[in-house]
Amino acid sequence: MKEKQWSLIDYSIYAMDKEEKVKCSVQGLLILSIVLWIFYQSIIMIAIGSPLVCIYVRQCCEKRCRERKWELTLQFREGVQALVAALSIGYSVENAFIQAIKDLKLLYKEEAMIIKEFEYIVYQIQMNVPVEHAVGEFAKRSTIDDIKSLSEVFAIAKRTGGDLIKILRSTSRMIGDKVEVTREVVTMMSAKKFEANIMGIIPIGMIIYMKISSPNFLNPLYHNIAGGLVMTVSLILYSISFWLMNHILAIEI
Fold first, then answer.
1. DSSP string of 170-197, one letter each residue
2. Greatest Cα pair distance in the chain
3. Residue 190 and which of 23, 99, 220, 244 are 20 to 30 A apart at CA?
4. pLDDT at residue 53 in the model
5. Running DSSP on this structure, what letter comes out for residue 11?
6. Could you tell me which of 33, 24, 25 has the C-alpha nearest to residue 204?
């Protein structure tokens, strides 16, 4: 494998590019402006609350970080299966990773995360780094338990002289079972998340409906201190409820 510059990813952190950051910021500012206008009908309050867009951008980063880790988990599952298949037909560990890369390129594009990571593992092995250390370094950056398990499998097999293929096959089966269970949970929770989002929109919808059907009914809540306090408390409670719903329904990968 040719010498090249390696760009290692810390999968616990998602760094948006400029285009993503602008798009997410504009989207967050639009949502924030609509909510603050509904609650306060004040350009000044929108200006004061605009820094809260940073929270929305951070949440977008966290969401995309979770999505990337889930995608890496799915790719890793295929990678382990390809690795087991290569070892089963007699390849050495290094050559098994090389063969697994060839198999993975039939499933994913060249820039796929798992392909880059397996290529880096092969490079480290060629630099005389023990395979368990190479995989362990990948596991630390990914913070994914399944990858940590693979590192431990190599370490145990090397220390005890156990049947690496048998252990890896068992590990692959367990990873596959875990992925399938997680996939089923995600599918079941998607309906609940949709319901939670609808429930989160209902209070805003009710205010809009009342403003359209009875414009004067909510006037006492705007442009005065008492009304502002009432709307502020309502907005805080609404924000906490919305956060709790999303936190409860969040699934850790």
1. HHHHHHHHHHHHHHHHHHHHHHHHHHHH
2. 80
3. 23
4. 92
5. T
6. 33
The answer for residues whose C-beta is within 8 angstroms of residue 53's C-beta and 6 or more apart is: 25, 28, 29, 32
Phi, psi dihedral angles at 7 (to 5 degrees): -105, 95
Question: In the structure encoding, which two tokens stand for residue 74, read together?
Answer: 């799915």
Give the whole-angstrom CA distance, residue 13 versus residue 251. Answer: 17
pLDDT tens-place string over residues 63-85: 899 889 989 988 998 998 899 89
Distance CA 62, CA 67 (A): 9
CA distances from 84 to 19, 71, 92 (A): 40, 20, 11
CA distance 158 to 144: 22
- Measured on CA atoms in the order 82, 86, 89, 93, is the torsion positive or negative? negative
Three-state SS for 145? helix
For residue 223, the one-letter residue type is: H
